[in-house]
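User: Fold this one for me? It's Cobyric acid synthase.
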Amino acid sequence: MVVQGAVLVAGTTSDAGKSAVVAGICRWLHRRGVSVAPFKAQNMSNNSVVTPDGGEIGRAQAMQAFASGIAPSVDLNPVLLKPGGDRTSQVVVRGRADGQVSALSYRHRTAALSDVVADSLARLRARHDVVVCEGAGSPAEINLRATDLANMGFARRNDLPVLVVGDIDRGGVLAHLFGTLAVLDPADQALIAGFVINKFRGDPRLLEPGLDRLRELTGRPTLGVLPFAEGLWLDAEDSLSAVADGVLGRPAPPRGGQWLRVAVVRFPRISNATDAEALACEPGVAVRYVTEPSRIADTDVVVLPGTKATVSDLAWLRASGMADAVRAHAAAGRPVLGICGGYQMLGHTVSDPDGAEAAPGTTVAGLGLLDLEIAFDPVKHLATPTATAWGETVTGYEIHHGRVVRSGDPGLIGDEGSDRGNVLGTHWHGLAENDGFRRLLLTRLADVAGRTGFVVAQDTSFAAERTRQVDLLADLVEHHLDTSSLEHVIGHGAPPDLPVLTSGLAASPA
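Assistant: Here's what I get for Cobyric acid synthase.
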């Protein structure tokens, strides 16, 4: 019998592993022939993609859709918050930008957005046997409970059983799991069906006494302990969460005699930094995120990635000394690549007449490395284009307010983008995921950088690497979770009459 139902995967903290666990469960079910879809009612991330139905959703949900064997759609992530500053975010509703909010003003919109969330979930449940939902942040954020869209308020409204994931690599995981349950009111606690521990290193037998005691204290089982997996780093919810010492991925040795060293500028409001992941999949390509000029001085290629705040991040680039370092790098004839917001920074001017991202009427000077002028439009441009570049058919996606109003440089992809020899730029995200184009791009970058001993691998497949990683997640679920209990929770909900931990808190709203 095919399992049918839904479950919410919550986490003790942000980056506890919710996105990875959801992807693993989806992939495990998909491999068993179950029609499954992921869902995140509300996401906060500047990493996003454009769906085939023309909207914008969090990149993690697109990755989870890939794991599920389905096309991404706006129903998978009906509400997306894109931070443009410490206190303000752009709200994306069913794929379309719908104003700016502060942390306080957003509370007044959640009642209406709750209906949007419910409609999207209902459509997914009608089309699929199982929907695996992902929480946001932590369900223990009881200060936000009254207007919660994605955690226990969402679970209560939809009668969903909840699994709570804790990251043992952070320390204190047993206290995190116990405390998360304890601060919830009885009605919320009744939906917590069990726990999952993530990123365990060592012998699981050492953990067993703690898990036994946790069950005694809470009445809830730990459905599994997922081991730490070195090979997982693509499509992370937090694009920098899998970065060790600034290095992206696990660089494979070069095929030739030289490495190609790539520095990706880590803007304060970096967006879609995942564009660099396709480069980091290549043997001999060492990709590092950088925030100081000295890191540019000894690199071969500089990448200016996307940003949610082009004007303010351009100001940061100047104040930090990075702008001068990028100019010096280009003046020496070495390659610079700009993507989306980074591309816009490379031109002569960036203006925002209507205040799409900056103050209305703002005009600032760019780096002047491309003959380009940018003006921001209040309407965000979303597209999934296909074209030919350097003889290769390429696909990508566009998410930007900035428009090119004048360009004097040759295009990079037909008329799109700019190609000035050692300085290149494009509004397209995902361009390097096209294997043939990526090989030509790396060959060009290495030649311009003088890395004549660098050899581009001809057998790297970005799609195959992404498939390998979601299959690895499914293997972790299959071999380290109690999948029989997981199926029962999905199909039948949380067990009745679960113990309540007394916290002294007043009841939360339904």
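One thing worth pointing out: Residues 118 and 158 are 8 Å apart (CA to CA).
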